[in-house]
Amino acid sequence: MSTMDVHLADSALVEELRKDVRDGLTADSKWLSPKYFYDAVGSELFEQITELPEYYPTRTERALLEAHALDIAEATESTMLIELGSGSSEKTKLLLAAGVKNGSLKTYVPQDVSITALEGAIEQISREFPALHVHGIVSDFTDTLHNLPSGQGRTIAFLGGTLGNLIPEERKEFLGAIAGALDPGEYVLLGVGLVIDPTVLVPAYDDAAGVTAKFNRNVLSVINSRLGGDFDPDAFEHVALWNAENEWIEMRLRARSPQHVHIAELDLDVRFDLGEDLRTEISAKFRPEGITEELAAAGFGVEHLWSDAESRFALVVARRVNER
Length: 324
Description:
The protein has 324 residues and is of the alpha/beta class. The protein is built from 9 helices and 13 strands.
């Protein structure tokens, strides 16, 4: 059995895009939200990125899930798995299979901003796991926790290293909101990238084949198509660098020449100087002690942390405690 709730109207998405683009392009240090990478073209490019030899996070996380999905099911005994930013739910099938094998899991709640992606995932999951109730939620993961179904024995999963796309203040608020949505004794499962040698880390975001560069520049095409912009994506250079102070990767687009861009639907003119950067994404990496401290501040106690042999990525299981 499957159901779906829609908490995000197309009009709200457009208004959010308009606000974010205006705020980002008029800031002293220009920025765009990484959420706008993922139109149809961007999603396909990202799938290509995950298969590149330089891009280790996806395959490393999947290997950890293959190794520890049953451990997670046994540790949490969850009857409901809620996944934020579920996408295709492909990796999540490992958790679903383990939960069914353990005899505990009854309900899977995938959440995603894309109704099309969610409908496809729900159909496939319902076919492969007919005993599960699949309850989809269309919403923005940063503003949806109050829409999650209630129940006992819930685990909220947030995989793929996406937590690192939030700056520390946003992470604090987000993890606190997850804690507020859960009852004591319920769990959060995180997939997080770890701090490693920048000579390995940076190429994961700046591959030799140039796929990430196409992915990065595609966000300008999204603005062109949705808001009537006249960006020339090829006039911007893809840049990925390691910010050692903040321990995060920054993806930027750097103007190859002075630029004058008009965004018709915002009646906005934007100028770029030669070499000026537009930040499109941060991807924070964590140390085990750091993510443990952040979770503790939000009201969680870490019970399990599994990493790969090279300590590049980690799965973290944390339990909601009584007091924050």
